[in-house]
Amino acid sequence: FVNHSVVDFTQSEVRSAFPKAIDQVRKNLGRTYPLLIGGREVITQDTLPSENPAKPEEIIGLICQAGRKEIDSAIVAAKQAFPAWRDTSANDRAQYLFRAADIARKRIYNLAAWQVLEVGKQWDQAYADVGEAIDFLEYYGREMIRLGKERRMGRAPGELNHYFYQPKGLAAVIAPWNFPLAISCGMSSAAIVAGNCVLYKPSGLSSVVGYTLAEIFKKAGLPNGVFNYTPGRGSVIGDHLVDHPDISVIAFTGSVEVGLRIIERAARIKKGQTNVKKVIAEMGGKNAIIIDDDADLDEAVVHVLNSAFGFQGQKCSACSRVIVLKPIYDRFIWRLVEGAKSLQIGPSEDPANFMGPVVDREAQKRIVEYIQIGKKEGKLLISTGVPAEGYYVPLAIFADIKPEHRLAQEEIFGPVLSIMKAETFDQAIDLANSSKFALTGGVFSRSPRHLEQARKQFRVGNLYLNRGITGALVERQPFGGFKMSGVGSKAGGPDYLLQFMDPRSVTENTMRRGFTPVRDDDDYI
After folding, report:
1. Mean pLDDT taken over the chain
2. Is-catalytic flag, 64?
């Protein structure tokens, strides 16, 4: 396995490919997108418009919304497809993922362009999202080939013991808008390659990008009913999907409030339910970067700006707190603010803009409210101007934030950064750990002792030393946290697929007829 390469804008053909792709996508705006259930297109009367957040009057598409009836139909289709898909070999299931990866590679600029317009991702951010989706397909395919081999257990004479996996059944994949292809593809492909059939509910804010995933799987030749595209309003189908007795696995990425609701509801056994539901939930963070008093500020400032304000801070891994040692507190702040002044804000389709719009009016309103809270809790260092049209918010940096402040504890999901002062490195670690979340974190330091201390005591799922804290790569940095940041194993890691399967063990007494059958142990590991 090798990760898909990052985008290289030094190449003229790459620079020209993006505007061409955006122009091509624009020619297809405004169409109506059906549900895809059991291989059939299903049109519903209830549709939801998807807007360009930089230009809200520009409608990306009208997405048909599933109701309870459509969810029930999709469950029937998935149940019909499941026995044959379950019994398809792991190697053959993996080949579908490899074909999907090839399709995505050939369409990478087109797929990225949809994200630029639908959720306001910058060129590099959108390209990286598609690259991560490709990585998930390639990595999980290889992982399933590895896990699909029966494993011989023990060497006792007179018996054979084999350990293997089977899929859990039907999986509900409930995906976010901020990594609209990558996370959707990661959760869905993991469930599919493990032998499950999927009902996929994309976010209403990124359902057109979600439809491109359905197109990829369809072109890859997935059997009908294995992947069902079922966008819908959470208030209408959310509980029904989670509660349904035929759903065995729920893979969710989103807010802690929704994640905890899913966990609570999934624990209730419904009439006719034969499986205990498995919930895999990634739920966000309040991530901190520690700046030691010997840190290289040339590196630290750039990485903090990228980690905090890349894609407008709309990443669960984004830096929202910077904890700075007292001796360099004022110097770091001055350099950080001067760097922030250089960041241009405007439509993401223009590569001159470092920051674009936030995803919708609700996010805009919430973030502005937090900026007002910050003005009461700390010292506002910078609040940038924004374009008049679109869902823009200022880039805001606050100093002198205390651990008890709301800006230090609550996930904002926007370009709002809090700076905290620490007297010692020990105190900095304590401040970093003072949140209910434990997703990502970072340290900039030249001290081997402090870096080793952070390894042991900075308790987050993904810790980065002397680099930014966003942009985890499949296989290299398996991603996921604990505490209120997540329930489940790390996406893009060696044990992620295990969550979608049940292990089985078969023991055979080979002495019952007085002989031991010949077995080719090369087939087992």
Report:
1. 96
2. no
3-class secondary-structure state, position 440 = strand
Report the C-alpha gap between 31 and 512 in whole angstroms. Answer: 67
Average pLDDT, integer, range 168-197 = 98
420: closest CA among 274, 287, 258, 306?
287
Amino acid 158: pLDDT: 87
Residue with tokens 């374009």: 387
Q: Please name the amino acid found at residue 308.
A: A
Determine whether 282 is an active site residue. yes
Q: Identify whether the C-beta of residue 418 lies closer than 8 Å to the C-beta of residue 401.
A: yes
Q: Which DSSP symbol is given to 496?
A: S
Name the catalytic one among 70, 118, 143, 282. 282
SS3 of 105, please? helix
Tokens standing for 242?
């989670």
HSE of 106, CA atoms in CB hemisphere, 13 A: 9
pLDDT 10s digits, 5-14: 999 999 999 9
pLDDT average, residue stretch 181-207: 98
SS3 content of the chain, % helix, strand, coil (to 5): 40, 20, 40
Give long-range contacts, CB 8 A cutoff, 24+ apart: 427-431. Answer: 428/290, 428/292, 428/323, 428/325, 429/290, 429/453, 429/454, 429/457, 429/458, 431/288, 431/321, 431/323, 431/403
Active-site residue among 64, 185, 197, 316? Answer: 316
Which among 376, 379, 457, 466 has a CA at the least distance from the CA of 417? 379
Which residues have CB under 8 Å from 1's CB, separation 6+?
A: 138, 139, 142, 475
Query: 216 and 100 in contact (C-beta within 8 Å)?
Result: yes
By the 8 A CB rule, do 408 and 401 touch? yes
